[in-house]
Amino acid sequence: MPIVAIDGPAGAGKSTIARRLARALDWAYLDSGALYRAVTLAAMEREVALDDTEALTRLAGELEIELEPGGKLLLGRENVTRRIRTPEVTEAVSRVATVPGVREVMVSHQRRFAARNERVVAEGRDIGTVVFPDADLKIYLDADSGERARRRLQQEDEVADGADEASVRAGIEARDRQDRSRKTAPLRVAEDAWRLDTSEMTLDEVFAAVRNRVTSAIRP
Ligand code: DC
């Protein structure tokens, strides 16, 4: 059951690279952030307070979340793949992701996904450290926050109308702090991860470097 784990902060290129890699290898793509986003969307719609950790944990356990190998996400029967990417969800999600009970449920979702799909490129914050500590290859993609903000601005759906580079950068840095300082499964570089700083690389260059690494680390 080969697994490639890709971790790193927001805007480092993880999603684009993980999705492209999964397609090139014909492996399943596991977007773990989408799971935390789905819980956040449901909490907002049901008016669950984002500081009510018990209610959030209960909600996470009750939701019917279905992540398809191509990245499509169903909540109940509804396709919420786009709605989990609104600026409102993006802003609120790192709070929900601090709740240990929510994380526990999401980690079991991810492990079930890997058991179902066998060959997986998984992307998130704690994939190589917590979810799949025995992953065959662990990659930590990084970039400085200014460059990550510029990249995020190009993904228009996720930023609020009228946002500029400074405000997007401030939002990214706030989420980084939240993701790195939480007690349960904080964002950090796994000891055995290959760290790649992509600040001065194009996405094509990052993809080529990652693909080479995968080819040499994982023999078919
Ligand atoms: O990668 P993303 O922007 O979709 O992640 C959304 C949020 O979920 C982000 O605040 C970090 C959190 N997250 C997490 O805590 N653990 C993961 N494995 C993936 C995402």
- By CATH, the architecture is named 3-Layer(aba) Sandwich
Low-confidence stretches: none
Sheet bearing the most strands, described? Answer: 5 strands, parallel
Supply the number of structural domains.
1
- Summarize model confidence as the mean pLDDT: 94
Bound molecules: 2'-deoxycytidine-5'-monophosphate
Please name the defining characteristics of this protein.
single chain, 220 residues, alpha/beta, Rossmann fold, 3-stranded antiparallel sheet, 9 helices, 8 strands, 15% strand, binds 2'-deoxycytidine-5'-monophosphate
Q: Can you describe this structure?
A:
- With about 220 residues, the chain is an alpha/beta fold.
- It has a single domain, classed as Rossmann fold (3-Layer(aba) Sandwich).
- About 50% of the residues lie in helices and about 15% in strands.
- The strands form two sheets. It has a five-stranded parallel sheet, with helices on both faces. Strands 3-4-5 form a three-stranded antiparallel sheet, with helices on one face.
- Strand 3 and strand 4 form a beta hairpin.
- The chain is globular and about 50 Å long.
- The protein binds 2'-deoxycytidine-5'-monophosphate (DC).
- 2'-deoxycytidine-5'-monophosphate binds next to helix 2, helix 4 and helix 8.
